[in-house]
Amino acid sequence: xxxxxxxxxxxxxxxxxxxxxxxxxxxxxxxxxxxxxxxxxxxxxxxxxxxxxxxxxxxxxxxxxxxxxxxxxxxxxxxxxxxxxxxxxxxxxxxxxxxxxxxxxxxxxxxxxxxxxxxxxxxxxxxxxxxxxxxxxxxxxxxxxxxxxxxxxxxxxxxxxxxxxxxxxxxxxxxxxxxxxxxxxxxxxxxxxxxxxxxxxxxxxxxxxxxxxxxxxxxxxxxxxxxxxxxxxxxxxxxxxxxxxxxxxxxxxxxxxxxxxxxxxxxxxxxxxxxxxxxxxxxxxxxxxxxxxxxxxxxxxxxxxxxxxxxxxxxxxxxxxxxxxxxxxxxxxxxxxxxxxxxxxxxxxxxxxxxxxxxxxxxxxxxxxxxxxxxxxxxxxxxxxxxxxxxxxxxxxxxxxxxxxxx
Length: 407
Prior knowledge:
By secondary structure, the protein is an all-alpha fold. It has helices at residues 12-19, 22-52, 57-73, 75-85, 89-102, 112-140, 146-175, 179-200, 216-222, 225-238, 245-253, 258-286, 288-308, 312-340, 345-373, 375-396. Helix 10 (225-238) runs parallel beside helix 15. The longest helix is centred in the first third of the chain and has 31 residues, at 22-52. The chain starts with 11 loop residues before the first helix and ends in an 11-residue tail after the last helix. The model is unreliable at 1-18 and 402-407 (pLDDT under 50).
């Protein structure tokens, strides 16, 4: 009698799912709930701020830049404190809770001042939670699946950004575009924000190695040279990376109504959800340096496209390409940093976010000023800076001494 056939190894997707730590999915679900809330609001914010509340596009640029700066202002501090104490969960939970409380501002006011304060203050919570959570995520993901884990987390995160705009669209379609509808929308968005905090409180902590006596100066000296080199092209690229709100304003100028803009934003997020796990797996296989460069190239492409886009279908296609770029940039840059800096990851994530966030402010300010003259100029400058970042990245070779030697 012949021997029974040996069991076949599971298919790659099955094996990947089996090796993915369950807490990756739990942290992803927390981000999903948070994004349902935040993106319900953000999907209508740019147009609501300028056309309903009456603010100018230049003021939008200022507020978006300040919001990005706010999101990065506490990154270094929270990352350093997380590495110093070894705690991840406490800092992440505090950040999510602060953003939830900030959304209460929308429940009591819809003035230009109130909207501006909300947009800036709410991002403080994002800045505080990001580095500890990303370090937490990198510590529970296997090294050879780290890109995939970050990609899955980003897919779940942006799945909330798909559902949020769709809920906003449903409310606007059902109740009409009125001040009362927006108040209802803000109340509905508040619910999943509260749920995200409750879910996170039930996820077990994954503590890092504490560096209790390490000050900020020593902490910086101990970071890897590859990570410090990566900050240079990342900073150049940040100067090109202005607010997505300007892309939505471009769509509005092409004839997209408020509800259509919401659907367009959902399309951007759907593309990101579908692409993020594949881009993460691609980084695991071919090296994250190549995928980071791919992200820079895609951003340059979509900005060049926005200069000449002339139809609604072209605008939809360009936003889908933007979603592909976002899948690369927002997930694989974090996995790349985790490769470059294996021990002080929260600090590295915090410094990266701080450096890029500081530069997002002039990026959005310049975009707002150029937009007032000619929108094409804003997109053209962004494309040129993206290409420059590619050249600097190749020159600096940040992954030359990293564990991911394929970069």
